[in-house]
Design a protein that fits this description.
Number of strands: 0
Number of helices: 4
Radius of gyration: 28 Å
Order of helices and strands: HHHH
Strand content: under 5%
Distance between the termini: 34 Å
Largest sheet: none
Shape: elongated
Length: 151
Amino acid sequence: MDRTFQVVLVLVAIVLVVIAGVLVARLAYKPAPLAPEKVAEKGAGTSEPPAQPPLKPIPSEGAQPEPPVKPPEKVEKPATPPEPVPGQPGTALKGDLNGDGKVSGRDLAAVGKYLGKKPGEDGAPEAADLNKDGIIDEKDLQVLRDIILHR
């Protein structure tokens, strides 16, 4: 077998393992039951609609009107942190080559794109060499697969 075919087989095997892991995780997920107060709010099990909040009485003539409600004070939001930059240490998750904040099959494809290259060669990011051995190869795909399956 030639090297390209071997690489394709490894990529297909890794993608299948990732898909199987996702399916197992989804099948194992069971949503938590609603708390009793939430069930009562929704009117579940009854034909009655959920209880309405009490209405305010209409003021009679000569009564003092209620003072107006002040709008909440505006709170300035802190500046948003900079977006992670793929390939820069400390700015992204290990294995997150596309900088989307998660490690996924898209990152596997990104590593596969640079197989056989050295970091920095033809635009290959440093982050693609996950085991830091100086070349992007099947070992890096295995490291990324382990990261995906164990998160």
